[in-house]
From TrEMBL:
A Pfam family of this chain: TetR_N
Keywords: DNA-binding
The keyword Oxidoreductase is annotated on this UniProt entry: no
Domain HTH tetR-type: 26-86
InterPro entries in the record: Homeodomain-like_sf (IPR009057), HTH-type_TetR-like_transc_reg (IPR050109), HTH_TetR (IPR001647), NicS_C (IPR041474), Tet_transcr_reg_TetR-rel_C_sf (IPR036271)
Basic and acidic residues: compositionally biased ranges: 1-16
Protein name per Swiss-Prot or TrEMBL: TetR/AcrR family transcriptional regulator
Annotated stretches, region: Disordered: 1-27
DNA-binding region: 49-68
PROSITE patterns hit by this protein: HTH_TETR_2
Lineage of the species this protein comes from: Bacteria, Pseudomonadati, Pseudomonadota, Alphaproteobacteria, Hyphomicrobiales
Natural source organism: Methylobacterium ajmalii
DNA-binding is among the record's keywords: yes
Protein backbone atom coordinates (compact mmCIF):
# COMPACT_ATOMS: atom_id res chain seq x y z
CA UNK A 1 0.00 0.00 0.00
CA UNK A 2 1.45 3.36 -1.02
CA UNK A 3 1.63 6.39 1.21
CA UNK A 4 -1.14 7.98 -0.85
CA UNK A 5 -3.37 4.92 -0.48
CA UNK A 6 -2.74 4.80 3.27
CA UNK A 7 -3.56 8.50 3.68
CA UNK A 8 -6.75 8.04 1.66
CA UNK A 9 -7.78 5.08 3.81
CA UNK A 10 -7.10 6.94 7.07
CA UNK A 11 -8.97 10.11 6.01
CA UNK A 12 -12.52 10.10 7.44
CA UNK A 13 -15.25 10.00 4.86
CA UNK A 14 -17.39 13.17 4.62
CA UNK A 15 -20.74 13.02 6.36
CA UNK A 16 -23.60 12.07 4.08
CA UNK A 17 -25.60 15.22 3.21
CA UNK A 18 -28.62 14.30 1.11
CA UNK A 19 -30.06 16.73 -1.39
CA UNK A 20 -28.56 19.59 -3.30
CA UNK A 21 -27.18 22.71 -1.69
CA UNK A 22 -30.32 24.58 -2.76
CA UNK A 23 -32.52 21.96 -1.08
CA UNK A 24 -30.50 22.12 2.13
CA UNK A 25 -30.71 25.89 2.07
CA UNK A 26 -34.49 25.77 1.70
CA UNK A 27 -34.78 23.32 4.60
CA UNK A 28 -32.66 25.59 6.77
CA UNK A 29 -34.79 28.58 5.81
CA UNK A 30 -37.96 26.70 6.71
CA UNK A 31 -36.52 25.61 10.06
CA UNK A 32 -35.67 29.21 10.84
CA UNK A 33 -39.15 30.34 9.82
CA UNK A 34 -40.85 27.68 11.96
CA UNK A 35 -38.63 28.51 14.93
CA UNK A 36 -39.26 32.24 14.50
CA UNK A 37 -43.02 31.67 14.44
CA UNK A 38 -42.86 29.90 17.81
CA UNK A 39 -40.50 32.43 19.38
CA UNK A 40 -42.52 35.46 18.23
CA UNK A 41 -45.72 33.89 19.55
CA UNK A 42 -44.09 33.12 22.89
CA UNK A 43 -41.99 36.27 23.39
CA UNK A 44 -43.56 38.91 21.14
CA UNK A 45 -41.56 41.01 18.71
CA UNK A 46 -39.67 43.02 21.33
CA UNK A 47 -38.76 40.00 23.44
CA UNK A 48 -37.71 37.73 20.58
CA UNK A 49 -33.95 37.58 20.02
CA UNK A 50 -32.19 36.39 16.89
CA UNK A 51 -30.00 34.11 19.00
CA UNK A 52 -33.10 32.48 20.49
CA UNK A 53 -34.50 31.86 17.02
CA UNK A 54 -31.18 30.49 15.74
CA UNK A 55 -30.92 28.14 18.71
CA UNK A 56 -34.49 26.93 18.25
CA UNK A 57 -33.78 26.32 14.56
CA UNK A 58 -30.55 24.44 15.35
CA UNK A 59 -28.54 26.86 13.27
CA UNK A 60 -26.52 30.04 13.80
CA UNK A 61 -27.24 33.78 13.71
CA UNK A 62 -25.25 34.23 10.53
CA UNK A 63 -27.64 31.99 8.60
CA UNK A 64 -30.67 33.75 10.06
CA UNK A 65 -29.35 37.06 8.77
CA UNK A 66 -28.37 35.45 5.47
CA UNK A 67 -31.90 34.19 4.80
CA UNK A 68 -33.95 37.04 6.28
CA UNK A 69 -31.74 40.09 6.69
CA UNK A 70 -32.88 40.84 10.23
CA UNK A 71 -35.64 40.58 12.79
CA UNK A 72 -38.04 42.95 11.05
CA UNK A 73 -37.95 41.07 7.78
CA UNK A 74 -38.19 37.75 9.60
CA UNK A 75 -41.27 38.86 11.53
CA UNK A 76 -42.86 40.18 8.34
CA UNK A 77 -42.27 36.82 6.66
CA UNK A 78 -43.80 34.99 9.63
CA UNK A 79 -46.88 37.22 9.37
CA UNK A 80 -47.14 36.76 5.62
CA UNK A 81 -46.92 33.00 6.01
CA UNK A 82 -49.60 32.98 8.71
CA UNK A 83 -51.98 35.11 6.65
CA UNK A 84 -51.31 33.04 3.53
CA UNK A 85 -52.18 29.82 5.37
CA UNK A 86 -55.59 31.18 6.38
CA UNK A 87 -56.32 32.60 2.93
CA UNK A 88 -55.37 29.28 1.32
CA UNK A 89 -57.69 27.41 3.68
CA UNK A 90 -60.53 29.83 2.83
CA UNK A 91 -59.99 29.28 -0.88
CA UNK A 92 -60.40 25.55 -0.31
CA UNK A 93 -63.84 25.84 1.28
CA UNK A 94 -65.67 25.58 -2.05
CA UNK A 95 -67.81 28.60 -1.25
CA UNK A 96 -68.47 29.26 -4.93
CA UNK A 97 -70.31 25.92 -5.11
CA UNK A 98 -72.74 26.78 -2.32
CA UNK A 99 -75.89 28.87 -2.20
CA UNK A 100 -75.01 32.37 -0.92
CA UNK A 101 -76.43 31.97 2.58
CA UNK A 102 -74.85 28.53 2.96
CA UNK A 103 -71.54 30.00 1.77
CA UNK A 104 -71.68 32.71 4.42
CA UNK A 105 -72.51 30.14 7.10
CA UNK A 106 -69.58 27.97 6.08
CA UNK A 107 -67.25 30.98 6.10
CA UNK A 108 -68.39 31.98 9.60
CA UNK A 109 -68.02 28.44 10.96
CA UNK A 110 -64.60 28.12 9.34
CA UNK A 111 -63.43 31.47 10.75
CA UNK A 112 -64.67 30.57 14.23
CA UNK A 113 -62.92 27.19 14.15
CA UNK A 114 -59.73 28.56 12.60
CA UNK A 115 -59.27 31.09 15.38
CA UNK A 116 -59.96 28.42 17.99
CA UNK A 117 -57.33 26.14 16.50
CA UNK A 118 -54.77 28.85 15.69
CA UNK A 119 -54.47 31.07 18.73
CA UNK A 120 -50.87 31.59 17.66
CA UNK A 121 -52.22 33.54 14.67
CA UNK A 122 -54.19 35.77 17.04
CA UNK A 123 -51.05 36.38 19.10
CA UNK A 124 -49.00 37.34 16.05
CA UNK A 125 -51.62 39.77 14.76
CA UNK A 126 -52.08 41.28 18.23
CA UNK A 127 -48.32 41.86 18.38
CA UNK A 128 -48.35 43.51 14.96
CA UNK A 129 -51.13 45.85 16.06
CA UNK A 130 -48.89 47.04 18.89
CA UNK A 131 -46.50 48.17 16.15
CA UNK A 132 -49.29 49.83 14.14
CA UNK A 133 -48.96 47.22 11.37
CA UNK A 134 -45.60 48.61 10.25
CA UNK A 135 -44.40 45.19 9.10
CA UNK A 136 -47.38 44.10 7.02
CA UNK A 137 -47.79 47.64 5.66
CA UNK A 138 -44.45 47.10 3.95
CA UNK A 139 -45.39 43.65 2.63
CA UNK A 140 -45.48 43.09 -1.12
CA UNK A 141 -47.49 39.87 -0.74
CA UNK A 142 -50.37 40.79 1.56
CA UNK A 143 -52.22 43.01 -0.95
CA UNK A 144 -52.63 39.97 -3.20
CA UNK A 145 -53.86 37.86 -0.28
CA UNK A 146 -56.30 40.57 0.72
CA UNK A 147 -57.62 40.83 -2.82
CA UNK A 148 -58.31 37.10 -2.99
CA UNK A 149 -60.39 37.29 0.20
CA UNK A 150 -62.35 40.35 -0.92
CA UNK A 151 -63.14 38.76 -4.29
CA UNK A 152 -64.28 35.58 -2.57
CA UNK A 153 -66.76 37.47 -0.40
CA UNK A 154 -67.77 39.87 -3.16
CA UNK A 155 -68.81 36.89 -5.31
CA UNK A 156 -70.99 35.53 -2.51
CA UNK A 157 -72.59 38.94 -1.96
CA UNK A 158 -73.28 39.46 -5.67
CA UNK A 159 -74.93 36.07 -5.97
CA UNK A 160 -76.96 36.64 -2.83
CA UNK A 161 -78.19 40.01 -4.03
CA UNK A 162 -79.04 38.62 -7.46
CA UNK A 163 -81.04 35.74 -5.97
CA UNK A 164 -82.87 37.99 -3.53
CA UNK A 165 -81.40 36.21 -0.49
CA UNK A 166 -79.44 39.33 0.56
CA UNK A 167 -80.41 42.96 0.65
CA UNK A 168 -78.65 45.22 -1.87
CA UNK A 169 -75.67 47.41 -1.08
CA UNK A 170 -73.60 45.09 1.13
CA UNK A 171 -69.93 46.01 1.36
CA UNK A 172 -67.88 42.77 1.26
CA UNK A 173 -65.01 44.29 3.25
CA UNK A 174 -67.31 45.50 6.03
CA UNK A 175 -69.05 42.13 6.06
CA UNK A 176 -65.75 40.32 6.51
CA UNK A 177 -64.56 42.69 9.25
CA UNK A 178 -67.78 42.08 11.17
CA UNK A 179 -67.54 38.30 10.82
CA UNK A 180 -63.88 38.25 11.81
CA UNK A 181 -64.43 40.65 14.71
CA UNK A 182 -67.21 38.63 16.30
CA UNK A 183 -65.30 35.35 15.98
CA UNK A 184 -61.98 36.89 17.00
CA UNK A 185 -63.24 38.67 20.09
CA UNK A 186 -64.55 35.51 21.75
CA UNK A 187 -61.23 33.71 21.38
CA UNK A 188 -58.80 36.59 21.93
CA UNK A 189 -60.60 37.85 25.04
CA UNK A 190 -61.70 34.59 26.61
CA UNK A 191 -59.87 35.26 29.89
CA UNK A 192 -61.37 38.69 30.50
CA UNK A 193 -64.79 37.42 29.38
CA UNK A 194 -64.51 34.60 31.91
CA UNK A 195 -63.58 37.00 34.67
CA UNK A 196 -66.49 39.28 33.80
CA UNK A 197 -69.31 36.92 32.83
CA UNK A 198 -68.21 33.52 34.09
CA UNK A 199 -66.36 30.58 32.51
CA UNK A 200 -69.30 29.29 30.49
CA UNK A 201 -69.54 32.53 28.51
CA UNK A 202 -65.82 32.54 27.78
CA UNK A 203 -65.10 29.02 26.63
CA UNK A 204 -65.23 29.11 22.82
CA UNK A 205 -64.65 25.36 22.63
CA UNK A 206 -68.11 24.77 24.12
CA UNK A 207 -69.58 28.05 22.87
CA UNK A 208 -72.21 26.67 20.50
CA UNK A 209 -74.59 29.36 21.72
CA UNK A 210 -72.05 32.05 20.88
CA UNK A 211 -71.55 30.72 17.35
CA UNK A 212 -75.32 30.50 16.85
CA UNK A 213 -75.58 34.13 18.00
CA UNK A 214 -72.98 35.23 15.44
CA UNK A 215 -74.76 33.35 12.67
CA UNK A 216 -78.12 34.89 13.56
CA UNK A 217 -76.68 38.41 13.66
CA UNK A 218 -75.11 38.05 10.22
CA UNK A 219 -78.32 36.51 8.83
CA UNK A 220 -80.30 39.50 10.13
CA UNK A 221 -77.82 41.92 8.58
CA UNK A 222 -77.92 40.22 5.18
CA UNK A 223 -81.68 39.66 5.00
CA UNK A 224 -83.76 41.68 2.56
CA UNK A 225 -85.54 44.56 4.28
CA UNK A 226 -88.99 42.98 3.78
CA UNK A 227 -87.85 39.95 5.77
CA UNK A 228 -86.76 42.00 8.78
CA UNK A 229 -89.18 42.44 11.69
CA UNK A 230 -90.56 45.97 12.01
CA UNK A 231 -89.26 47.88 15.03
CA UNK A 232 -91.68 48.11 17.93
CA UNK A 233 -92.89 51.53 19.09
CA UNK A 234 -93.73 50.16 22.49
CA UNK A 235 -91.55 51.33 25.32
CA UNK A 236 -89.96 48.61 27.47
CA UNK A 237 -91.70 48.09 30.77
Amino acid sequence: MTTTDRASKDRPEPAHRPGSQAERSMRTRQRILDAAHAVFVREGFAGAKIEHIAEAANTNKRLVYHHFGGKDELFRTVLETAYAAMRQAEQGLGLDLLAPRDAVDRLIRFTWTYYLEHEDFISLVATENLYKAEHIAASEHLPRLRSSLVELIRDIVRRGEASGEFRPGIDPVQLWISIAAMCWFSVANKHTIAATFGPAAANPAIGADRLAHILSMVHAFLAPVADKPAPSDAMPT
